[in-house]
Amino acid sequence: MDDTTERVLTLLGLLQQRQVWTGPELADRLGVTPRTVRRDVERLRNLGYPVHASKGIGGGYQLGSGQDLPPLLLDDEEAIVTAVALLAGAGGAIASGGDVALRALTKLDQVLPARLRHEVRALSSSVESFGGGRDPVDAASLMTLARACRDEVEVGFDYRSAPRRLEPYRLVASDRRWYLLAYDLDRDDWRSFRVDRMSAVVARTWRFRPRAAPDAATYVQEGVASRAYRQQARFLVHAPAMSCAGRSRRRRQW
């Protein structure tokens, strides 16, 4: 990285830390002249960062909001806190946001330095205790499966003590659990698996060509409804749908 690039990134980090900086303040922090600061600000603008400049008392340089979300610079502590917050969302602490949180966490994990991954994993158990919604799952296993789905590589894991070899396609979040839709290579058919019942999850080096897959959410939902119980029944209930929704979530033993 050349000096100019490093300086511009440092400038961006400073603008993200505080609302307003004067030109002399930035010049002092960067060890350059105010003229160089102006040039670096223009470089940021060319990259899509909306840097506003105002004169007078209380004026200075300010990083504004743009039409599109530009890349953010995070220091180590900010990256750890962000990853932990996303783990909380993936674990169910954020209602209906688990799949979105996991996608964001996958992107962050791809660029997260190795020295920070240990700290994130060390905090993941604490995050799970705040979930309250879904059954706890191993954060490292969830990340391994998410990356394997993204990279289209086979995965292996033990499921109820039996080894499985699969092509992973999608992770599906329900209000209680995480599921994996995958093609079972040993059984030559589609299967859904509860992530909390997996152990020894590993991503293999074998890449696969994606098959025509069923809709993941529909497949898992139908599987949970039709295959999870030995007996099935249909009822006609004369009541508003909203009043029945909460009752339907209660688990019943048949």
Average per-residue pLDDT, rounded, comes to 78
Largest sheet, strands/sense/barrel: 5 strands, antiparallel
State the distance separating the first and last CA atoms.
65 Å
Structural class: alpha+beta
Radius of gyration over C-alpha positions, nearest whole angstrom:
24 Å
Q: Which oligomeric state applies?
A: single chain
Q: What would you call the shape?
A: elongated
> How many strands in all?
7
SS summary, helix count: 9
Model description:
The protein is an alpha+beta fold and 254 residues long. It has helices at 3-17, 23-30, 34-46, 76-91, 98-111, 114-129, 139-151, 216-227, 241-248, and strands at residues 51-54, 60-63, 153-159, 162-173, 178-184, 189-194, 198-207. It has three domains: 3-63, Winged helix-like DNA-binding domain superfamily/Winged helix DNA-binding domain (Arc Repressor Mutant, subunit A, Orthogonal Bundle), CATH 1.10.10; 76-129, no CATH class; 152-227, no CATH class. A hairpin with a 5-residue loop joins strand 1 (51-54) and strand 2 (60-63).
Quick structural summary:
It contains nine helices and seven strands.
Descriptive tags:
Arc Repressor Mutant, subunit A; two-stranded antiparallel ribbon; five-stranded antiparallel beta sheet; alpha+beta
Q: What is the topological layout?
A:
Elements: H1 3-17, H2 23-30, H3 34-46, E1 51-54, E2 60-63, H4 76-91, H5 98-111, H6 114-129, H7 139-151, E3 153-159, E4 162-173, E5 178-184, E6 189-194, E7 198-207, H8 216-227, H9 241-248
Antiparallel strand pairs: 1-2, 3-4, 3-7, 4-5, 5-6
